[in-house]
Design brief:
The chain has about 375 residues and is an alpha/beta fold. It is built from 11 helices and 9 strands. The longest helix has 18 residues. The two termini are about 50 Å apart.
Length: about 375
């Protein structure tokens, strides 16, 4: 059978457990191991390597164990890397925000506009409704300030007549966004605050997309000559953006038409126009009567994944009750959460046990000479010289 006898019997009884290895007679007792561990983790030796501790104790006339035993004890207690008390970052969950109508979720951010001289900037504050993509408030200032942000948010909420406990305001973690004055204002107005995860750029996609639309306009200058120049540009741009720009994310409607309830009227007029075109030349429409682009019924920031997709991934504590398809209601009954900042999984690093084994690099391979090319080069598919 080309199999050894021990292997044959072991495979016949795979559940048999091996007998525990007896402790050597010269091994340290549990009390002695704990004494060594306490010394290594003490405030005196917490930032010293075991060799330094061993030498220091020897000079003091005290011998606990060998250096290798110290390392073995530390490894058994998972303390071989850093034994000092380290500051740990808090856990952040992925924010999941849902808007089914205007003035439910706002996104706001601050961007810099270059001034006339090097290292001079103007700061543009923009508040955007994620459902209608309408800019409901903006301000151009000479500096980034929490007091200015507070003034803009308060004025915009009053202008839009937002009742308490209706609005969620989402932002990144800039100093103005996380300031106490803004947090106290939102709390007093009954507005839920939400923040992006640190170092995650796609948690605030709507504001970033709006800034890109502005800065990629052909009339956007390389620099603004003065504050009044930047103010005039912003007035022209936001008027165009809200009233004339046909946004692809909202069925090619203008943000103001969707925000102020004129979407059905515009869609009905477009439907009538397309129906008339079909009647005139039906042979040009091979798929039947054309229809205008539909208006999204729901807009998400980080929608929960379908259940069949989540089964193929590591479990996430963010949305345990999500349905198989993304619905118009949030799967959690307590949505939004307090502070609306759920936290991310404890670790975002891959499980090393599931990674494929690493193939060592063969540094002894002799390179081949390439015909017609001076020098030597190793074989490498897909590289053109």
């Amino acid at each position: 059978m080309n199999v050894s006898r021990a292997t044959f019997y072991r495979r016949r009884d795979p559940d048999r457990q091996a007998a525990p290895r007896p402790a050597p007679a010269r091994a340290l007792s549990p009390q002695e191991r704990q004494e060594v561990l306490d010394q290594l983790n003490s405030e005196r030796f917490a930032d010293h390597a075991p060799r330094q501790v061993y030498a220091k104790l020897l000079d003091e006339g005290d011998y606990l164990c060998s250096v290798r035993t110290m390392y073995r004890i530390l490894a058994d207690n998972q303390s071989t890397r850093e034994r000092r008390n380290q500051l740990k970052h808090p856990e952040y969950r992925k924010p999941e925000l849902l808007a089914t109508a205007p003035n439910e979720v706002w996104s706001w951010d601050i961007t810099k506009l270059k001034g006339p001289e090097t290292w001079t900037y103007y700061y543009l504050y923009v508040i955007l409704d994620i459902y209608s993509r309408c800019v409901v408030g903006w301000m151009l200032a000479d500096s980034e300030s929490a007091d200015l942000a507070k003034q803009l948010i308060e004025t915009t909420i009053d202008k839009q007549n937002i009742p308490p406990e209706q609005l969620i305001i989402h932002s990144d973690r800039g100093p103005s966004m996380t300031s106490h004055s803004v947090a106290q204002l939102l709390s007093s107005l009954g507005v839920t605050k939400s923040h992006s995860r640190p170092h995650v750029s796609n948690d605030n996609p709507f504001s970033e997309s709006q800034f890109k639309t502005m800065k990629y306009r052909p009339e956007f200058p390389k620099r603004f000559g003065c504050y009044e120049d930047g103010l005039q540009f912003c007035r022209t741009f936001f008027t165009w953006y809200n009233n004339e720009h046909y946004h692809s994310g909202i069925g090619l409607l203008t943000p103001s038409s969707l925000h102020f309830g004129r979407a059905e009227e515009v869609t009905a007029a477009r439907t009538q126009t397309l129906h008339g075109a079909w009647k005139k030349t039906p042979e040009r429409f091979v798929h039947g009567i054309p229809k205008p682009a539909s208006v999204p019924q729901a807009v998400w920031i980080n929608p929960p994944k379908p259940i069949d997709e989540r089964k193929r991934e590591a479990p996430e504590p963010t949305c345990p009750g999500a349905s198989e398809e993304t619905s118009l209601t949030h799967p959690r009954s307590d949505y939004p959460l307090d502070g609306c900042v759920p936290a991310e999984p404890p670790s975002v690093s891959p499980d090393e046990s599931t990674l494929p084994p690493k193939t060592p690099l063969n540094t002894r391979a002799m390179p081949e000479k390439i015909p017609g090319v001076w020098g030597l080069a190793p074989k490498c598919a897909g590289i053109n010289h």
